[in-house]
Design goal:
- The protein is α/β, with parallel strands linked by helices and 499 residues long.
- The chain has 15 helices and 18 strands.
- 34% of the residues lie in helices and 22% in strands.
- Strands 7, 8, 9, 12, 13, 14, 15, 16, 17 and 18 form a ten-stranded mixed sheet that branches.
- It binds NADPH dihydro-nicotinamide-adenine-dinucleotide phosphate and 6-O-phosphono-beta-D-glucopyranose (BG6).
Length: 499
């Protein structure tokens, strides 16, 4: 795993991980922590307290932490020896009393310095329990730092509600227990280096920003394509679907960074103010436009990387008659001075041909081509392609003369690759986000008004889905989605840029 080139060590703290036996903790959080331990980013006074229902002892939890990261550096095994575990339900006061006792013990300086009263509560558990946990923490005074401590923070995972109403209700509960400044909402896309690089590309260079507007950009695409299916998360996905799972959060965050106005500084308030301003300008289709401006679809059986895979309705935990969408595409507009009239197309789906997240800024065609038509046939408009994953990098697509006697022009690309330029793969998103949460930097976390605005703008589409339109199309696993997705762009004369 790669090393974030950082930075002073974090302050000491107890990281209380609700859902410590779960998938997210095991596959993402523990490996990210192990990597941070391995590169010396964490204080020696850092201790994890796992919480879940599984009836584990401290030692069983420690074994779980070791097994979750088989290739960790030796420092991981050392720090894991201090980890603690609480088995319990979140609706039992006994669970929080035990957590409180353990935290007080850990605060006291020992050979490693102690956790010094600092607490980070990470809700990596099922979303219906977020409110319950926040209330339990507040009831036991755990919404404040321990003696001598500087912070008590609550980190929560998506989904933040399932629509505007439930998101507001969740926020109301969280705000009864914690101040907004203590709440760190994670959208792991914000932890991806290449998502953050959108800001560097735009604002650390002078050549892009002058053309980053309606005068030069013809249209914008955002693609979040996955080749994976729903895996073992079928029953969760049944109640989510692609709109809630990916569009409301990951796509909207990427879009906001790509299209927002320049922020005067990188301070958290300025960046988040600009993102929310942009989200307020995004115009979703009206309910009567959804039929033509939105596509929803579900995958059927197909082939990925030469292997046959089942259709969505055959996946474990999925209703054989399910109408949950595994693919969504739509046309949006952004009603502000910079982007008026520039269509923004977004699409996301599971079991697509390839895993790829990209933003493509497609520029307008030159007003006049002096070359004979047949010499420039097939020439594509200029495009700047931001490859968020995999193969992180940036490509600039342009026309170049083909060697030879005439003026044949062909589309070529200039390419920047993260790996080649920096000699390393970008670090995992959760490493950066964990570090920022412990250090108290909220810039990459999602503020309540962003969450609510993203839900608000999707409301007409959610309402239409409930009413049963647009009709549910189908696409074979391993393709780029249904034909309707290609047709979405036809009226504007565009086509998707497939990676
Ligand atoms: P899992 O179902 O794998 O894990 C849920 C965890 O919560 C388990 O540790 C479980 O413990 C614990 N738990 C459930 N109910 C209770 C209860 N009543 N009392 C105490 N503990 C309980 O979920 P994930 O890890 O997949 O997801 C966790 C969160 O992270 C969700 O909000 C999800 O949306 C989000 N997320 C997950 C991602 C992923 O890749 N998995 C990606 C992005 C976000 P036990 O089994 O021991 O009872
Ligand atoms: C999660 C979704 O938020 O993001 C998953 O719940 C999805 O369904 C995942 O697979 C994609 O993340 P990444 O980092 O693999 O693009």
């Amino acid at each position: 795993m790669s090393t974030p080139r950082s930075q002073a060590r974090t302050p000491p703290a107890a990281l209380v991980m609700f859902g410590a036996s779960g998938d997210l903790a095991t596959r993402k959080l523990l490996p990210a922590l192990a990597s941070l331990v391995g590169n010396g980013s964490l204080s020696d006074g850092m201790v994890v307290v796992g919480v879940a229902r599984s009836k584990w002892s401290d030692d069983e939890f420690r074994d779980h932490c070791l097994q979750a990261v088989p290739n960790a550096k030796p420092a991981w095994a050392e720090i894991v020896k201090r980890f603690r575990y609480v088995s319990g339900n979140y609706d039992h006061d006994a669970t929080f009393l035990r957590i409180s006792e353990i935290l007080q013990e850990l605060d006291i300086p020992d050979g490693f310095g102690g956790t010094a009263g600092n607490r980070l509560f990470y809700l990596a558990t099922i979303p219906s329990l977020f409110g319950e946990v926040a209330r339990g923490l507040a009831r036991h005074g755990l919404n404040r730092p321990g003696v001598g401590g500087k912070f008590a923070r609550l980190v929560i995972e998506k989904p933040f509600g399932r629509d505007l109403e439930t998101a507001e209700a969740l926020d109301e509960t969280l705000h009864e227990c914690f101040d907004e400044s203590q709440i760190y909402r994670i959208d792991h896309y914000m932890g991806k280096e290449t998502v953050q690089n959108v800001l560097a590309l735009r604002f650390a260079n002078s050549i892009f920003e002058p053309v980053w507007n309606r005068r030069y950009v013809g249209h914008v695409h955002v693609t979040v394509a996955e080749s994976l299916g729903v895996d073992h998360r079928g029953s969760f996905y049944e109640s989510a679907g692609a709109l809630r799972d990916i569009v409301q959060n990951h796509v909207m965050q990427v879009l906001a960074l790509t299209l927002m106005e320049p922020s005067a500084t990188m301070d958290p308030t300025s960046i988040r103010d600009e993102k929310v301003k942009l989200l307020r300008s995004v115009m979703p289709p009206r309910i009567d436009e959804v039929e033509t401006a939105v596509v929803r679809a579900q995958y059927t059986a197909g082939t990925i990387d030469g292997q046959p895979v089942p259709g969505y309705r055959e996946e474990a935990g999925v209703d054989p008659q399910s109408t949950t969408e595994t693919f969504v595409a739509m046309r949006l507009s952004v009603d502000n001075w910079r982007w008026a009239g520039v269509p923004v197309f977004i699409r996301t789906g599971k079991r697509l041909a390839k895993r790829s997240t990209e933003v493509v800024m497609v520029f307008q065609r030159p007003p006049h081509l002096p070359f004979a038509g047949k010499l420039v046939r097939g020439l594509q408009p200029n495009a700047l392609i931001l490859r968020i994953q995999p193969d992180e990098g940036i490509s600039l697509r342009f026309g170049a003369k083909v060697p030879g006697g005439d003026y044949r022009v062909r589309t070529v690309a200039m390419d920047f690759s993260y790996k080649d330029a920096f000699g390393t793969d970008p670090p995992e998103a959760y490493e950066r986000l964990l570090l920022d949460a412990i250090n108290g930097d909220p810039t990459l976390f999602i503020r309540t008004d962003e969450v609510e605005q993203a839900w608000r703008l999707l409301e007409p589409i959610q309402d239409a889905f409930v009413e049963g339109y647009p009709h549910l199309s189908h696409y074979g696993a391993g393709t780029w989605g249904p034909l309707e997705a290609a047709r979405l762009l036809e009226p504007d004369g565009y086509e998707w840029v497939n990676p």
